[in-house]
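The methods section describes the discrete structure representation at length, but only in general terms. Since the whole study asks how a given chain folds, the encoding of that fold should be made plain. An entry of this sort, consisting of the sequence and the corresponding backbone structure tokens, reads as follows:

. . .
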Amino acid sequence: MKVYSVLFLLLFLSFYASGQKSKSQLEREKKENLKKITETNRILKQTKTRKRASIGQLTALKQQISGTEKLISSISKEIDMLSGEMDEIEMIAEAMQKDLENLKKEYALMVYTASKFHNNYNALYFIFSAQTFNQLFKRYNYLSQYSSERKEQVEQIEKVQETLLAEKERLKNKKQEKDLLLATQRKQNSSLKSLTEEKNKLIAELSSKESELNKEIEERKEIIKKLEKLIASVIESEIKKTSKGTASNKVTLTPETELLSSSFEGNKSKFFWPVASGFVSQKFGVQEHAVLKGVKIDNSGIDIQTNKGEEVRSIFDGIVEYVGFIPGFGNTIMIKHGEYFTVYSKLSKVSVEPEQKIKTKQVIGEVLTDNDGISEVHFEIWKNMVKLNPEVWLFDKK
């Protein structure tokens, strides 16, 4: 029985250790989700400073709902894991309780047997009544060993009792932890319900403004066309300048710019975001409109919704290639990184100038906040004349 208990405990502890790793991952995931929810909630509140319903407000709401759903899922997994741990602890406690009862029975039998030799006379009589010296020696060793085993049995009982109490205390703590998580989950479920109701109400309100939304879509298309034309023109000019009259469709690199270009490419999926906080409000390429059914929007970059007054940063070392203003999109900055170009639009302020050398994470401007209270930066990445999906180049914040 003693061997069984030790093996059982070792097996449990190995499972528990592997469970702890998963639990720490879940706790980290939960903290990250809570951070994102807090961040998005701050952005969402800023979109509500204007009473007018907007797509930006809807986007922030959807982001908040997504974050809350992820948090609830993370909490549910943590609750399931705690339930499993509690079941395991209860199994251990039950096995140890049985071991304790068996140890006590064994000890009681030892005490009964020892009572037969309750005084020194009986013990001496038992030893010296031996027929041979060899038998006498064996009886002496038996009594010595028996006395030692009784002492060891008492120690074993005390150890099991101590460990059992510790397991019961651990079970109590796990129950409290689970109760706290359940309360948090109920709170988040309530929040999710409210957010969903708010989203549905906002969609209904925006759907009633179809003509206004269509007008905004057409205006954005025109702005995007102007921006693309401008970017293409700047890149073409750079290609001509570096190719020195030879026919080429890409920037001719020097050893220095080739190294920069190679380094840029090597950092794919690792780049810092152009803003410290925020979320992708409009993805790259053709996307369904958030409200209007059957309407698609083509985006040459990504839009990142963020906080009012947020600083905009260069994602990598480079040289400022262009600084200008586009009506409807505010200030625009292009930075050259060898044969790669990053574009930052929808800026209210700029703090750099053409030909200026830029370092990674250097502040280059400030995000623009529109009439609806939406603070959003438009970000693009080009390789020569080819548009790339910026989201796969930035590190994953999920």
